[in-house]
Automatic annotation (TrEMBL):
Its cofactor is pyridoxal 5'-phosphate. This is Cystathionine gamma-lyase. One of its GO terms (cellular component) is cytoplasm. Keywords: Lyase, Pyridoxal phosphate. It comes from Paragemmobacter aquarius. InterPro entries: Cys/Met-Metab_PyrdxlP-dep_enz (IPR000277), PyrdxlP-dep_Trfase (IPR015424), PyrdxlP-dep_Trfase_major (IPR015421), PyrdxlP-dep_Trfase_small (IPR015422).
Length: 369
């Protein structure tokens, strides 16, 4: 993935409505929340009923398709996209292989709703996925870099081996977004993502999408949405459309700041552990340098104790004390409070749009104070 093709798709994203516009049409997409559509005939195309399709979803799906390089289906949350992709691909009696260290709710979902229906649910650590045994797997699901540990795996290598075993490959691409990593180009069959994070980008909307180039899988996922009724709202789609217009420029600032802050944190005497894949010495660096065009805005930082980590957050005025990530403002939280398998003093930091020196000054004071 070269920088030039990236630039082209970000420009295309901003002008994607161009060829459909008629004299007097709004440049920005109208927010259409209609449930029903003028339907005197049933033998022609067009919109029929809001659970089947909606004009405002199609606008955001057109943007996402440009970014992902595949067809996209939007959902009301990241988990709605993930459950759609899994229900569209799992089979009773076959294995689904999930990351043991990825997004926690995906595992809860599999235990509550896949295992009871006879799906064999197996877990593999992200760093062990490349060498894992895929025999009997119908689905190999990976998350790279993983949330919250920022471990990575080689998407292309895993896709090759999973396909040889007859499995469909699903990649949760939430942490990097398609601005930085395009799993479909690397051999994945399906991408799932929470657009609640950086694509929405302002902590004011839940949204998700599934991307694929396989028309059979696309139809399954669309049928799931239509029949299960897990449909996004028009206003949410409209907000994400607006968010996606600035995603590339926000990512540029957030990733650049994360790089600066990570290298300073790594040199700070109070920091016991520091994960940022952009640091040359990080275990995730080499693989990510190969398969992504940037290293993201998430940093994993470990202080000496839970109390020290909480005090750092309390003392830093420019880090919101909230869950989630990818918003305009920096945010941080101690993940052990939710049961993630990380040290008690581990903080997941999401670097936002604050000017980097103002943010760093506040962080350094909170560390030194
Ligand atoms: C947040 C997140 C999700 C779930 O997204 P929601 O919109 O909260 O449902 C899935 N995967 C990863 C990696 C996430 O960070």
């Amino acid at each position: 993935m070269t920088r030039n093709t990236d630039d082209r798709r970000f420009a295309e994203l901003l002008h994607h409505r161009r060829d459909r516009l008629e004299q007097g049409d709004p440049i920005t997409p109208p927010l259409v929340s209609a449930a029903t559509y003028h339907l005197p005939r049933s033998d022609v195309g067009g919109f029929i009923y809001g659970r089947m399709s909606m004009p405002t979803w199609e606008e955001v799906e057109a943007q996402l398709a440009i970014l992902e390089g595949g067809h996209c289906v939007s959902f009301p949350s990241g988990m709605a996209a993930i459950s759609a992709a899994l229900f569209a691909t799992v089979t009773a009696g076959r294995r689904v292989i999930l990351p043991s260290d990825g997004y926690y709710t995906t595992r809860l979902f599999a235990e509550a709703f896949l295992r009871p229906f006879g799906v064999t649910v197996d877990y593999v650590a992200t760093t062990e996925a490349e060498a894992a045994d895929f025999t009997g797997a119908g689905v190999v699901y990976i998350e790279t870099p993983s949330n919250p540990g920022l471990e990575v795996c080689d998407i292309r290598a895993i896709a090759t081996r999973a396909h040889a075993a007859g499995a469909v490959v699903i990649v949760d691409n939430t942490t990097l977004t398609p601005v930085l990593q395009r799993p479909l180009d690397l051999g994945a069959d399906i991408v799932v993502a929470a657009d609640t994070k950086a694509p929405g980008g302002h902590s004011d909307v839940l949204f998700g999408h599934v991307a694929t180039r396989d028309v059979g899988l696309l139809q399954r996922v669309k049928d799931w949405r239509k029949l299960s009724g897990a449909v996004p709202g028009a206003f949410e789609a409209w907000l994400v459309h607006r968010g996606l217009e600035t995603l590339e420029v926000r990512m540029e600032r957030m990733c650049a700041s994360a790089g600066v802050i990570a290298s300073r944190l790594a040199a700070h005497p109070r920091v016991q552990g520091l994960r940022y894949p952009g640091l040359a010495g990080d275990a995730s660096h080499a693989t990510m340098a190969r398969q992504a065009s940037g290293f993201g805005f998430l940093i994993g930082m470990t202080l000496e104790s839970a109390e020290a980590a909480e005090k750092f957050l309390a003392d830093c005025p420019f880090i919101a004390r909230s869950t989630s990530f990818g918003s305009t403002h920096s945010a941080g939280e101690r993940r052990a409070r939710w049961g993630d398998a990380v040290p008690e003093g581990f903080l997941r930091l999401s670097i936002g749009l604050e000017p980097v020196e103002a943010l760093w000054d506040a962080m350094a004071q909170a560390l030194d104070g």
